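Item description
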Amino acid sequence: MMSDRLSNLRCYLAGPIDYAEDDGVGWRKEISKWLLERNVVVLDPCDKKISNAKYSEIDEEKVKMFDLKNTGRYYELTRRMKEIVHMDLRMVDVSDFIIVYLNPAITMFGTIHELINSIHQRKPTLVVIEGGRSNASNWLFGIMDYNFMFDDFESLTTFLGQIDNNTIDADLSRWVFFEKTQTE
């Protein structure tokens, strides 16, 4: 049974970029395919669809950021990063739910900031933890429902599929589904 509760919802993809080997692109591409098949609007910080974004967080731009830091050019680094932080947090603001990938072996700061903002906004915040929930920080269990933590992307997509086709009840203190309007 295919429903479309996720159709037209916006999903932000939070996860490590600075110290991720592939700039955090790989897992985002994989989950984006799954989401796009369900007509979810994907908000990806590695592939910003923002007309006035000057700076990227990946590839040569990431190398440039580290060069600015390593050469003590903090003013320019701050100016660039303030724009990136603003754009990424704005995508969190406009999202209907977020998927967060946490890898305890990778240093993350922005990801945690985005996760906290999402939780404070009472959005469905779905967290995949590399190595499973047992590898999550104990603090995470104190700030969010462990039922929204997943051991892998397969269990996350199973959960989202059940939300989408309405075979499980969504936590309506977090999820908001708008009625679809028909246009002629």
Q: What stands out?
A: Residues 74-94 form the longest helix (21 residues). The chain has a mean pLDDT of 90. DSSP finds six helices and five strands in the chain. Residues 10-164 form a domain with the Rossmann fold fold (CATH 3.40.50.450).
